[in-house]
Amino acid sequence: SAVISQKPSRDICQRGTSLTIQCQVDSQVTMMFWYRQQPGQSLTLIATANQGSEATYESGFVIDKFPISRPNLTFSTLTVSNMSPEDSSIYLCSVVGTGPLAGYYNEQFFGPGTRLTVL
Amino acid sequence: SQQGEEDPQALSIQEGENATMNCSYKTSINNLQWYRQNSGRGLVHLILIRSNEREKHSGRLRVTLDTSKKSSSLLITASRAADTASYFCATQNQGGSEKLVFGKGTKLTVNP
User: Fold this and answer.
1) pLDDT digit string (tens) for B43-57?
2) What CATH number did the domain enclosing A71 receive?
3) Does the beta-carbon distance from A42 to B88 stay under 8 Å?
4) Where in the sequence is the domain holding A75, given as residue range(s)?
């Protein structure tokens, strides 16, 4: 069955540094998204990762802080730039796809998440 | 911004009992999806219900949708300790985008 993986699974970083999170799917998918889950909270959409073009960001999120790449239909990265303790969260990628991940009704599936702690 | 609200925010029951969680939302939707999250890990997709469906079943799970009231419920029957987790509803709103808007979640504790 299809697998969504994220690297790293967790990290502890110093303020002012940047971290790049990778999301890999083992089959081609049409849509990829990045979400943030702050401690004890629900999930908030950061952006839609568009293949071959700039990501589409939600209100409150900007490209300079969260640059996203999606070079192909199976891979995306999210960078958290110039980090502060307020960026401590779980970051999750999700996909809506075709092939083994396809749901008849477009179910959205999530990766295991990256737990980020900023000191 | 959050689309909806789940209630209760927290629920504690004994093993074998049924657990019911509710979700309300504000706008017209294409579908509503329920997820489970164990201890801050990734989300596990449980069930999707479309806007023209009223009820769906999957194993011990039963989901209902009332679009007139903009609400959904998730029923877990014969709960087990392993069902202890946070449960989230998420809506895909009308308008063509696949993105999901999440509710605040219900933290379920099933006591052995």
Assistant:
1) 999 999 999 999 999
2) 2.60.40.10
3) yes
4) 4-118
State whether residue B101 sits within 8 Å of chain A by CB.
yes
H or E element at residue B39: none
**CA distances from residue B2 to A35, B16, B26, B62 in whole angstroms, order as listed:** 13, 32, 10, 24
Looking at residue A53, the DSSP 8-state letter turns out to be: S
pLDDT along chain A (119 residues), means of 10: 87 97 91 94 94 92 97 95 97 81 72 96
- How many structural domains compose chain B? 1
Q: What is the CATH number of the domain that holds B97?
A: 2.60.40.10
**Candidates B42, B48, B98; nearest CB to A31:** B98
**So what's the pLDDT on residue B1?**
41
Distance from CA of A55 to the nearest CA of B (A): 13
